[in-house]
Amino acid sequence: MTKKIFQTLSGEVVRVTAKSVLFENDANGLQTWIPRCVCIDGDVLNVGDSDVIIATWWLELCTR
């Protein structure tokens, strides 16, 4: 079985800084700061963007 390297989160970017984005998850309504460096196209994410693709290792680290 192949392990996923990236995972898509459904929701919306609600705030941004130079280094991270505040993402609101559609599944549970929780807001989480996500570093841009763990996102695909993280350098161009902006408020209103949806369905963020992030590195699976970071998501696993945050959900421990």
What is the alpha-carbon Rg in Å?
11 Å
Low-confidence stretches: none
Structural class: mainly beta
Number of helices: 1
Strand numbers in spatial order across the main sheet: 3-2-1-4
The count of strands amounts to 4
Order of helices and strands: EEEEH
Mean pLDDT: 93
CA-based shape: globular
What is the strand content?
35-45%
Biggest sheet record: 4 strands, antiparallel
How much helicity do the residues have? 10-25%
What is the first-to-last residue Cα distance?
A: 22 Å
What are the key terms here?
single chain, 64 residues, four-stranded antiparallel sheet, 1 helix, 11% helix
Task: Provide structural commentary.
With 64 residues, this protein is mostly beta strands. The protein is built from one helix and four strands, in the order ββββα. It has a four-stranded antiparallel β-sheet. The mean pLDDT is 93.
